[in-house]
Write a structure and sequence with these properties.
Elements (H helix, E strand, L loop, with lengths): L12 H16 L6 H8 L3 H7 L3 H29 L11 H10 L8 H9 L4 H19 L8 H22 L2 H21 L1
Length: 199
């Protein structure tokens, strides 16, 4: 995932709250992280917190926007580092998704997809969060589509690869231990290989 943010003490109050929320919401969950804890761990006064975020829902929306920007930047960079920026190889570029997932799973703070986690946790109680998640997944799929040559099956193949990628993320998160995460990556690699072969 993205490189760590600057030390919290160096950040202005709004960014410090957002950085704290990012880490706690992703690690412990949104419902399990109360406003009092966010205030205490970000080192701001309650009045300062509510001056920047009128409610916890507003902070959740800001967290999702922040996570989207950070994760997409990392995702695009990781695809490039693993070979997407090299010579065009057509559908075989889809295989890079397995390399990217392997890199992500190896991070000590890996806890799956923050966007999938949010939808599972909040469900229909916060439709604006679901809308952000849908937009995030649509943009991720667009990036995957750019790995593929143009043609009538480009969109369908990108959708299938994105679904396989999301499924492997969930499987890796559930596995917990390294061997299970490796198995999820291996399964993703096999599924992507089948998609490439059938194209």
């Amino acid at each position: 995932m993205p490189s760590p943010a600057p030390q919290d003490s160096e950040l202005p109050a709004r960014e410090r709250i957002l950085s704290t929320a990012h880490d706690l919401f992703y690690r412990d969950g949104i419902r399990a992280t109360g406003v009092d804890r966010l205030i205490a761990e970000s080192g701001v006064a309650k009045l300062t917190f509510y001056r920047h975020f009128q409610s916890k829902d507003a902070l959740v929306r800001a967290f999702l926007d922040h996570r989207h920007a950070r994760w997409m930047a990392w995702f695009i960079d990781a695809l490039g580092r693993h070979g997407a920026a090299g010579a065009a190889t057509g559908s075989a570029h889809l295989m890079l998704l397995a390399d990217v997932l392997a890199e992500w799973c190896a991070q000590p703070d890996f806890r799956g997809c923050a966007f999938i986690n949010t939808v599972v946790e909040l469900g229909p109680s916060m439709p604006e969060a679901t809308a952000v998640v849908q937009a995030h997944k649509a943009e991720m799929t667009q990036v995957i589509a750019q790995l593929l040559p143009e043609g009538p099956t480009q969109g369908l193949l990108a959708d299938a690869a994105a679904m396989a990628f999301d499924g492997a993320i969930v499987r890796a998160q559930m596995a917990g231990e390294a061997a299970g995460r490796d198995a999820a990556v291996a399964t993703l690699r096999a599924v992507l290989g089948a998609l490439v072969a059938r194209r």
